[in-house]
Fold each of these.
Amino acid sequence: MTGMIIHTGLIIRGTAMIEKRDWHSDPITNETMIDADYRNTQNVRRFFKTAIGDHFKFDRPFMAWMKSHRGSTMQDAVAEWQRREAAK
């Protein structure tokens, strides 16, 4: 088994237990990993507005990038958003 969820909401992988992230309320930092449960929430929007500025906006291609880049960090996502904006 590569992983399983037990009744506590913890994910077990090997011998390590990883707490499932709540994208609505958990703190988000540059080092936060994008996981399989990633959601575009107001909490995520606040992170990007703080990291990038008030001009940050989600668009469909960027939201798709976020969903398809599990294992990337939020700093990677900031850099990707900035790369896309510079290319416009």
Amino acid sequence: MDAHQIHNKNVWMLRLLAGFFAVSSLLLMIVNRNLDAEIPLLGGSMLLVLAGMVGSRKWPRFTMVLTIVMLSVYLNVMVMKDMTVTSYIFLGLLPLLSLIYLNYTAVTLAGTLHLVSGLYYVFAHKELLFSGNLNLNDAMYFLVYGLFILLFTAIYILVTKKLSQRAEDSEQRLRDILESVSVGIWTYDFNTMELEVSDGFEQITGYTRQSLKGQVSRFQTMIHPEDLGLFYEIQQELIIKKSSSVKECRIIRPDGEIKWIQGRGRPYFNSLGNLVRLEGVIIEITERKHLEETIQFLAFHDELTGLANRTKFTAKFAETKGQGKPVALMFLDLDNFKEVNDTFGHEAGDELLKHIAGRLVSLVRAEDMVCRLGGDEFVILLADLNEDGVLKVMERIRSSLAEGYVYRGTLIGVSASIGISMSPDGNANLEDMLRLADATMYDVKRGGDSIQLTAERNLPLPS
């Protein structure tokens, strides 16, 4: 136990002794019909000395020992003034009160003083205390009793310290776990109207305890504007519906960084059913959210180029189909892509694919969609464009690809074979249109022409 802890225990003992001295003086006055000034004077003098020692905060261990000794003196004076078994029983308060310190020095001193005092009265004043009917066996009983008290207080401290150490270890483990998983704890007391937060809360939000203390409105200011609706839902669930709440939202730290958190809260009520406080935790889930977003993105996009994949492309086509507007598919296959890989390496090939993807997206409208089917094959969905409009898009793509691509200072020539299929009413089947566009593209590749509009524009409807 450090000096600060002993000082705090000295403060508690001083308060207890002040109360005990006052009550004991009152009891003596009631029992004896008068108050001997010696007892309250002694108690008051001891309190003044101890108050000075405690107030100075110097020598807390010495003050602890002095407190035990002074209490022993006071109790013995009480016994001397009223030599009865009842007064003698008060000596048991000495080892009992020493347990407050949870200190072996304190309880050993108190137990020893209690034992010595008890033996003294047994042998020196047995006639007054026990009407002279005390034999050697009775004296042994008092000796064993005193030793038992001494042993009991020592064992009590040993057990209590072990339990306290276990509790501290468990608390530390919990604190370590909370810190490792980025968890912050918060409590809002409706009586004091104050918000208390843990160290983890500070680390996650970037707001210090001082800036949050009593500022529950700060909760709202740290919530991302787009997620304020969730914050109001949490308030309704906790305060109005009086139920637990779990929500995920974004917060903005003082430095501008945005983090994802999961907030969990629950209300607490008194015996009358009145809401007295709210408690909860916030868990940082930024990495998990980014992972979820990545997984969600990859479920509908090509990992290399970021273009829509077959799944997303199919969904987009389904939205477009049946609107009574023309739909065109452009199937694009890069020429001589294998030679690029063989000459410059696969890294150059990947960079070329990403560059081509960016060009294609920039050359079509926002409502159109560019998809990478795999390898060096791309397909573009063009909606609500007539034949002339589709041809203009083709020309823009051809002109853009003709500019080539510079890789590490070397200009790489780029060309592509493109096949097109169109459905004037937009009701054709996707697989039919893809198959026709693919076949047209291969015809173009064999013929050497870069772009060709298929003559079979009116595709059959699916059966």
Amino acid sequence: MLAFGTFIVALIALIVELIKSQQKNNRLSSGKLAVIKCR
């Protein structure tokens, strides 16, 4: 249960970052890839 909740929180954070990057620039894409590789 805890791991599933953490996964959902991480998903929401990724979606928020995608929206922010679309509003500004796409320079956060490399940061997103690093976050995905860490998990």
